[in-house]
Amino acid sequence: MTQTFEIRPAGKQSILDLRELWQFRHLYRTLVWRTLRVRYQQTVIGVAWALLQPALLVFVFTIIFGRLAAIPSNGQPYPIFVLSGLLIWLFVAQAFGQASISMVANAHLITRIYFPRIILILTVITAALADFLCAFVLLILMMLWYGIMPSAGAFAFLPMLALAIATVFGLSLWASALNVPYRDVGLLLPFLVQLWMFLSPVIYPSTLLPEKYQFLYALNPIVVVIDTSRWAFAAGPPPALWMVGVSCVMALLFCVTGFWYFRRQEATFADVV
Amino acid sequence: MPEVAVSVSGLGKWYIVNENRFRGTLSEKLGRMVTAPFRARTPSAAGAHAMPNAIWALRDVSFDLETGKVMGVIGRNGSGKSTMLRILARITTPTEGRALLHGRVGALLEVGTGFHPDLSGRENILLSGTMIGMTPAEVKKHEDEIIAFSEVEDFIDTPVKHYSSGMFMRLGFAVAAHLDTEIMLVDEVLAVGDEAFQRKCKKKIRETALAGRTVLFTSHDMDSIKAICHSCILLDHGKVVAQGGVAETVAEYQRVCAA
After folding, report:
1. Which one of A106, B37, B83, B170 has the minimum C-beta count within 10 Å?
2. ipTM for the complex?
3. Are residues B104 and A42, on separate chains, in Cβ contact within 8 Å?
4. How far, in Å, CA of A171 to CA of A25, rounded?
5. Which residue in the set A114, A260, A264 is minimally distant from B90, CB to CB?
């Protein structure tokens, strides 16, 4: 059976063409492999970096925020408190940071071959998830060390991880498409990501925030994800259900509008990038 | 009954040149940025006349290509050959017109697409092969042939950043040449390396073209064109100047070049 396709001026496209994505699954797999392979190529300790990076951060944060600033940590040792949140945050920062520049960074591919450009974002997020799994091993080791058992919150962890992925995905669609004609985005984002970290309960517990700001807090879906992680693997109250609801709506909003914008701009990438 | 594999009608594309996106105040710029997704992104053919700095890279190109035939695309530099192949390869979208392609399309427009300097030659074969449209299984199947063709056997497990430019291009060509699709878009500029290897490339391209595939073939070498094409199309400044038989079109090309 031969396939037929039609080439027409860029116009209305379906928001998501799953059949086409499936056709390009090999490319996706190869790109994920390339990303991971290149990242740890020519390093002495290789993949161990995925473990060492969070470990070093935990060490530094424990000294500065746990000891010197004496930030409360829900009654658990600060290292495990901070790692249970940092783990999520490192995934978000790495995936979003790299996905937002992925169109420009892969300009040599975009101008030479056709493929659904969304694959570049999927690739970055998948590779970041691989690093996340390594960091998760570190968390398990630390739980064994401190003798902490996971709570019932562990069951909520996977759905919450999906919420974090959806958030990153939606925002990456926006940022990567905007970064093609406006490189300002790539320069502005590292600052915004830094700010985002302080607006999320990474180094401090979310209970530190006054009650009246809780609604604003819920607009950032990463808050409930981190709170769930703490509840499951360290210590802390579960996130309020209404906050989870608001966060889900936000993530959905990012994804739907992101898809819409990205698909509109996609056809121009090869000419503009 | 001959079947049409590629059908192109009224294909055209314009580019805006010298567009200064850094003109205007920051607020104007932000305003445009915010409204951009709401404006029509598709430049209309009528809109081109309103744009003083729009140029047509390609205009009013129409042809039908039967299954199994080879069509030469000739023209001087900047005549729109590459734009046409890039549109048919779906890298960029046309401004007007349409094209129908029946079958898997492979494009050999560039040497070493997707090569990564830090990866070895062998790894890059997989990478580049998958990127231009082979499945990993197909790449594996042809791996030995590709390595043999490229003549870089001894360095195949060395990162390609240590390759000489000749080795790099030979490996790139070898991967591209083993792509096997029903419709092929081939740019003979692809023939690379020293004279001996270029001959080998051209021979490989001709074999590909003569293996019963539908091929759109662009070259500046009229001997190649005459040797393998069944028909020809001549572009100049984005427009079709002549199309039809190979001999007449090539003669017309030589007149255009002499002028």
Report:
1. B37
2. 0.81
3. no
4. 23
5. A114
